Protein: Exodeoxyribonuclease III
Organism: Streptomyces mimosae
Amino acid sequence: MLTVTSVNVNGLRAAAKKGYLEWLSGCAADVVCLQEVRAEEAQLTEEVRRPAGWHARYAPAAARGRAGVAVLTRREPDAVRVGFGAPEFEDAGRYLEVDLPGTTVASLYLPSGEVGTPRQDEKERFMEAFLPYLVKLRAAAAGGGREALICGDWNIAHREADLKNWRANRGNSGFLPEERAWLSRVLGEEGGYTDVVRALHPDQDGPYTWWSYRGRAFDNDTGWRIDYQMATPGLAERCLKAEVERAASHAERWSDHAPVTVVFD
Amino acid sequence: MLTVTSVNVNGLRAAAKKGYLEWLSGCAADVVCLQEVRAEEAQLTEEVRRPAGWHARYAPAAARGRAGVAVLTRREPDAVRVGFGAPEFEDAGRYLEVDLPGTTVASLYLPSGEVGTPRQDEKERFMEAFLPYLVKLRAAAAGGGREALICGDWNIAHREADLKNWRANRGNSGFLPEERAWLSRVLGEEGGYTDVVRALHPDQDGPYTWWSYRGRAFDNDTGWRIDYQMATPGLAERCLKAEVERAASHAERWSDHAPVTVVFD
DNA sequence: CGTACCACG
DNA sequence: CGTGATACG
């Protein structure tokens, strides 16, 4: 059994002030992947940096206060790797991988973009460099009799069911045809990964994992499903349960994203 | 009778959220001089911009969110002037003058400095340009049978009694020998102004008008007296009462400065 | 709208 | 330590 949770915390220091640690203490997962930590380890309190009972590995961004991913594991990982080989994104705080027995788990924070800005170009460069890595990772895992799970904020909604207002967002970053096509490659023959939440919930809208802080997006459930756990075939087959932990109320929210939890047999 | 209050609000928008308007509604003054407004009029709510019963004139800084002085008057001023003729400080949001019958009242925010930095040089340039203006203002007022009152944050403690830790601050901006000597010139033969709070309270420490937000400065009354009302001789003679309105508790504070109120006959 | 940074005080 | 600017999301 392996239970993995992934959540974009939108600033770990802010999240810790609003209930992240209480949430973590009730979290039964074996592995927790965090994105948008937005802090270096030295800026975190000891309790937040290494919660009791967890091993914690961080990959902060070179730019202070930006991005940053982490992985918490109940047992010490066998190996830890930062980045995926693309020089531009080596110190971007966007990819961290840990090896556990039989399985490699990664925390990913794919850049968010905005059409017509350099940030969209950066997002596309990331996507272009990352897909070959995913292919290589899957092959390497298969060759070594291992599985891989890429958790995180992919900043792309794949299909119309993956966001509330898909019509209005056809021209917006996060739901562009080329972004959706790229995710289809990750999930198709080329990548061979499975979106395990969608695999277990094929016929519903959402479940959304992100709601803008602007307006009443959360209250109206005007959300996007952009946080995924993408599993190699052998691992995907073992998926028993997959769910998104939407906060009960706006007041209980400690991030604009919700945790995504998957239980593997 | 003329009652004048002066206070550095340290951001009028923040002050308004913490009790400034409640304080103002209990304020019996005829004129209120504000410093560090840190906003343009358009950024203020109508209620804050023009409180009921007041006329309000603003002199914002060209740099957004910096400095900014204002004067509130119960009756419409006869004239309003921004700046004191020094080109460098014309749009600095540091000086605003209003004419009321028989009296000119000014709101001043003298630059704060830091030894060894360009900001200290700026402070000194301001002082150098401002003293001749004060001399000219006094002469012009006298020639026209008027009085003048310069209220505000002068960012200099004059004597040892004007700050709690004078020994430790001998080398710090705000209590440098040259700054103190400059204030002595304002208050001596050259300027001819009277520090009316000190005139009415000659033998006490303080009363302080500013306490740093750092540490427990307010609770320990580790303050500085840097906010003054400086009056021309005829007006100084009419001073009946002068006091500093220290907030009762840290929780009641809506600025790091306290209002200075003077009643003239 | 919220979390960070920074400059200023 | 707090205000407000800015970048990012």
